[in-house]
Automatic annotation (TrEMBL):
The keyword Repressor does not apply. The lineage of its organism: Bacteria, Pseudomonadati, Pseudomonadota, Alphaproteobacteria, Acetobacterales. Residues 30-118, 131-222 form the Cytochrome c domain. This is C-type cytochrome. It is found in: Periplasm.
Amino acid sequence: MRRFLAFALALCVTSAVAAAQLLGVDPDRRQVESGRAVAAGAGGQGQQGACFRCHGFDGAAEHAAAFPALAGQSAEYLLAQLEAYASGARANPIMQPIAAAMTPEQRRDVAVYYAAQPLPGGRARPQGDAALLQLGGVLSAIGSAERGIQACQNCHGPGGIGVPPTYPRLAGQPEAYLAATLRAWKTGERPSTAPRMTMAIIARRLTEQDIAAVARYFAAVPAGPVQRARGVLP
């Protein structure tokens, strides 16, 4: 158990550092400052489309809201989502016009900015039904072989800490957002494109109770240590 915890902590720290990297290069201060300006609404999307209105300037998002926390995610992953929104490959009535209004450089810089933000810590985590949390933990750790459900940690790492640049962090994400995303995979509302075709297959095999359990579990897992990305922010 101690060996596993040490491995999980080491991987978590590594993920947090790697998350700030874009294409293997640490972002410079100009990229971060440009990204912050875009988050404030200076990316052509206007104040109504300013990133901070839903995701916050720190990228932590509101825990009760259905918006994802962006802080500490892989910049590559965040950029890929913005590019998908901008091209229309990923449909969303809110995000599509916002991403399309940005230049490619602005999408890159705002991805770098949010990747560079420290992981949120010290917030109250969802409690409630212990059996539901336990079910979510089981699905995360081992899945369900009889129903063909892969363990979440196979792709997203122990406790959902994320495996940059491809697989995002689930730990500490808002419960409502996680549940809504799984339902979107299940119904086909979210497109099944490589390398995430597996998510649509898994989601279709989840019951509503499974979705509620996984969402509650990952929302209850601490996002990770509070730290700033290497060489980015003072």
